[in-house]
Design goal:
This protein is mainly β and about 160 residues long. The protein has one domain. The protein has no helices and 14 strands. The strands form three sheets. Strands 3, 4, 6, 7, 9, 10, 11, 12, 13 and 14 form a ten-stranded mixed beta sheet that branches. Strands 1-2 form a two-stranded antiparallel sheet. Strand 6 and strand 7 form a beta hairpin.
Length: about 160
């Protein structure tokens, strides 16, 4: 873009904001962390941009864990979580810490027990009309699949970390 300022000519390169990230361009991972003290994240939800173009990640992903038409658990941003507005360049990853109870507590049962064969998916913020999200499975740090078990009624999503 060419702009004239009091006899001076300046060239401004305007970079349009990238399009919103869509499920087809992201690779999601839900990684359980080793037992941590109370208040620490239980797991990390990661999204890697596997496309050749950057995309805008404005908001928090929405997770949904369910068993048939019975129990389900959804995610919500942690109360102190700030708004998310970031650009995810090709090959880069964004990590969201997840806070939930993964084990039975005394005198309590799990909302989604590990032997229920639960399904889980994740949806990008502000999905396009025909973007239905991506299935995601719980794994350990080595990538081995774990049973999906959530013993709380929500999964809280913390502020992201770009890597």
């Amino acid at each position: 873009m060419l702009v004239g300022l009091a006899g001076l000519t300046a060239y401004l390169w305007v970079h349009p904001r990238p399009a919103a990230c869509g499920s087809p361009q992201l690779r999601w991972k839900w990684t359980r962390l080793a037992d941590k003290p109370a208040g620490s994240p239980t797991a990390v939800l990661s999204a890697r941009n596997r496309s050749a173009k950057p995309c805008a990640f404005d908001g928090y992903p929405q997770m949904h864990v369910w068993v048939g038409k019975a129990q389900d658990v959804e995610s919500e941003p942690k109360k102190e979580a700030a708004p998310v507005r970031l650009v995810l360049n090709p090959g880069r990853t964004v990590d969201f810490p997840l806070f939930y109870q993964p084990h039975d507590a005394p005198r309590m049962s799990c909302w989604i027990a590990g032997d229920y064969n639960a399904s889980s998916d994740v949806m990008v913020p502000h999905p396009a009309k025909h973007d239905y999200g991506s299935f995601v499975h719980v794994t350990n740090a080595k990538g081995h699949r774990l049973p999906t078990q959530v013993c709380s009624d929500t999964i809280q999503v913390g502020p992201p970390h770009l890597r």
